[in-house]
Amino acid sequence: MTLSLPGWQKRVLLILAGIAVLALFALAFTAGRVSAGPSYPASNSADAGFARDMQVHHNQAVEMSMIVRDNVEDGTLRAIAYDIALTQQQQAGQMYAWLEEWGLPQSSAEPRMEWMASGAGDHDGMDMGAGSGAGSMLTPEGLMPGMATEGQLDELRAARGEDAERLYLNLMISHHEAGVEMAEAGAKLADTEQVRTLAAKIQSGQQAEITLMQTMLDAL
């Protein structure tokens, strides 16, 4: 026996069926937008760790460069120091903006360099040494490699002329050598293309500056 429904009930069922179909389309559209949204690095990622630590490393290079720029007469060294300060200040601002965009804090409770230690075993080409950890990468003063101590910064502030030139070049060469290693790790461990690209740029740029500064140091 076929069940016959009044006309008004058929219309109600058709309307309800139409609403259900529209709801399914809306749900699918929303899910698609969510899944297609940007995926940002986690706070404990190599990308975030690199952005935080390299900012700190860069900021000290800017500080040292501005100190020596005001305390030496050599025009070439003054120009190099100013270029280092401008370049690294711009790059530090870029990394600051990444963390803001990713919704991540500018600092972390994790130890400095932890991103290098934790990611070393997961990527080909990174050999941080057996059993190496973030703590083993820091200096006895708890600083990242290449970072000048407060005593060295005070000495640079007090130096003048060739003494300031020699001290700056020695400090900045060590600073850059460590920066190159950090940048190499960032280029290999980071997941985002923007981080890998900047890290590679830092690596090549600072390596070239090391060569130039060593030549200047040898000439003093």
Give the structure's gist in a few sentences.
It is built from eight helices and no strands.
Structure commentary:
It is a single chain. The protein has helices spanning 7-35, 46-71, 75-102, 114-119, 134-137, 150-158, 161-189, 193-219. It is mainly alpha-helical and 220 residues long. The N and C termini lie far apart (108 Å). The model is unreliable at 120-132 (pLDDT under 50).
Descriptive key words:
elongated, about 220 residues, about 0% strand, mainly alpha
**Structural class label:** mainly alpha
- The quaternary structure here is single chain
**C-alpha Rg (nearest Å):** 27 Å
Please summarize the sheet with the most strands. none
Unreliable segments of 5+ consecutive residues: 120-132
Helix-strand topology string: HHHHHHHH
How many helices? The count is 8
List the helices and strands and how they pair.
Elements: H1 7-35, H2 46-71, H3 75-102, H4 114-119, H5 134-137, H6 150-158, H7 161-189, H8 193-219
Helix pairs in contact: 2-3, 2-7, 6-7, 7-8
